Amino acid sequence: MDNHIARRRFGQNFLSDPNIINRIIGAIHPRPGENMVEIGPGLGALTTPLIDALGHLHVIEIDRDLIARLRQRHTPSELTIHEGDALAFDFGTLGATPGDLRVVGNLPYNISTPILFHLAGFAEKLRDMTFMLQKEVVMRMVAQPGTGEYGRLSVMLQYRFRMGWLFDVPPEAFRPAPKVTSSIVRLAPRSPAECTARDEVLFGKIVTAAFGQRRKTLRNTLKDYLDDADFKTLGLDPGERGERLAVARFIEIANHCAARKHGAESPSSSISG
Ligand code: SAM
User: Fold this and answer.
1) How many domains does the chain have?
2) Ligand 1 center to residue 42 CA distance, Å?
């Protein structure tokens, strides 16, 4: 690594193990001409091999010192640098073809959950996303009902994306080494036909409420949404906990409430963190 001093406030841990870098590039499998954006290129561990394979890459970087280095190393024809916060970035501006944008990144840990929710809002633009995150976050993303890791993050992301854990990356692969193990995860958007919550805002509120107090039963956590008759109609045990309900069950609950709330009104759509 060169003389850049890693900034903790930007979650900077730079990949330095060439074998791991190769493995990640292999998992991304970049092809010439693809429309790809890397979040947080840092010192360029993934950036340079991605440019070599693609011909052109977009990056979003918040650290001005790192941006200056990237500008020195790459020409504007091969690298488009978007300076600023990825959480405020409009991914809708990248590329004209819906469903072709690929997003990759060794994500800064401090923004990993909000950036996933932010990107969920651009699902129709995306082909796939391959990220390195803390292993603990990836386990929560892909968790199944009835496990300790299953929660709001699992339901909200599994509603929108198919997801899979690919492999782990040990702390020694980075400079400086983080305290925890990381994992590579891939997300691909589900088709709109699969995302069947009639009111996605209401769906999000119900999921948030169900996991708000983990130890409490649905009778308690969903009392603003469901009464005894609703539990009966839905065939749902009021003594159950949110952590045992599959994503499809949350959709049923939300659609039941939406039908009552909206009647014939048009549904609303968007998922926010
Ligand atoms: N990709 C490089 C690597 O693998 O070695 C760096 C990864 S480092 C974990 C995270 C990178 O994201 C840093 O370059 C950091 O400056 C950048 N970053 C942090 N917060 C950001 C934000 N809100 N928006 C865009 N980039 C951010």
Assistant:
1) 2
2) 5
Task: Give the end of a domain, one of 164, 189, 214.
Answer: 189
Task: Please tell me if the CB atom of residue 67 comes closer than 6 angstroms to any atom of ligand 1.
Answer: no
Give the whole-angstrom CA distance, residue 143 versus residue 245: 12
Residue nearest ligand 1's atom 21 by CA = 62
Tens of pLDDT along 187-212?
999 999 999 999 999 999 999 999 99
Strands 57-61 and 79-83: parallel
The pLDDT tens digits for 7-53 are 988 989 999 999 999 999 999 999 999 999 999 999 999 999 999 99
Q: What is the CATH number of the domain that holds 33?
A: 3.40.50.150
Question: 46 CB less than 6 Å from ligand 1?
Answer: yes
CA of 39 to the centre of ligand 1 (A): 7
Say yes or no: 110 and 66 in one domain: yes
Which two tokens mark 207?
A: 């999921």
User: Which residues are bridge partners to 80 per DSSP?
Assistant: 58
